[in-house]
Design brief:
This protein is an all-alpha fold. The protein has 5 helices and 2 strands; from the N terminus they run αααααββ. It has a two-stranded antiparallel ribbon with strand order 1-2. The longest helix is centred in the middle third of the chain and has 21 residues. The N and C termini lie far apart (33 Å).
């Protein structure tokens, strides 16, 4: 094998792995609010939490999570599993209830997005939540470093 050749990956990528990769992505490239990515023309733009999960699982920008149907099944399932693990963590540890101007609760579809876009939210809170969600997923699904 040449030094520049990428060795084959034999392990399974878990939602926890993708959440940690998303946290690392945000640390390296920056965090963003209001859209998945700050600059769609940049290869590695600052991203929101969901955008970072998309980058971690696909290796490129995902403009809309409905686009995932066009990807191969592994990326689609992996991305949705990681996003689901993140939402589960937020529901348990950082529940918030937004009421819109008409007095209705904001639905769950917008939950990770509205959480990310809260004006009081900080980049460090987002990174910490992604890492904590990964730790929680591991504690529920692995034993001694092996999948249950």
């Amino acid at each position: 094998m040449k030094a520049t050749q990428i060795p084959p990956h034999a392990g399974t990528v878990t939602p926890a792995d993708l959440l940690r990769m998303a946290a690392l992505y945000l640390r390296r490239h920056g965090w963003h609010q209001g859209a998945y990515y700050a600059d769609p023309d940049h290869l590695t733009p600052p991203a929101c939490a969901a955008g970072a999960i998309g980058m971690a699982s696909t290796g490129h920008q995902v403009e809309n999570f409905l686009q995932l149907d066009q990807l191969d099944d592994d990326h689609h399932a992996d991305t949705l599993a990681a996003l689901g693990a993140f939402v589960d963590y937020l529901d348990t540890h950082e529940p918030i209830f937004y009421v819109d101007e008409d007095g209705f609760l904001v639905d769950e579809y917008g939950w990770p997005f509205s959480w990310n876009d809260d004006p009081a939210r900080t980049a460090e809170q987002v990174v910490t939540a992604l890492e904590a969600a990964a730790d929680e997923w591991d504690s529920l699904h692995t034993t001694g470093g092996e999948n249950r």
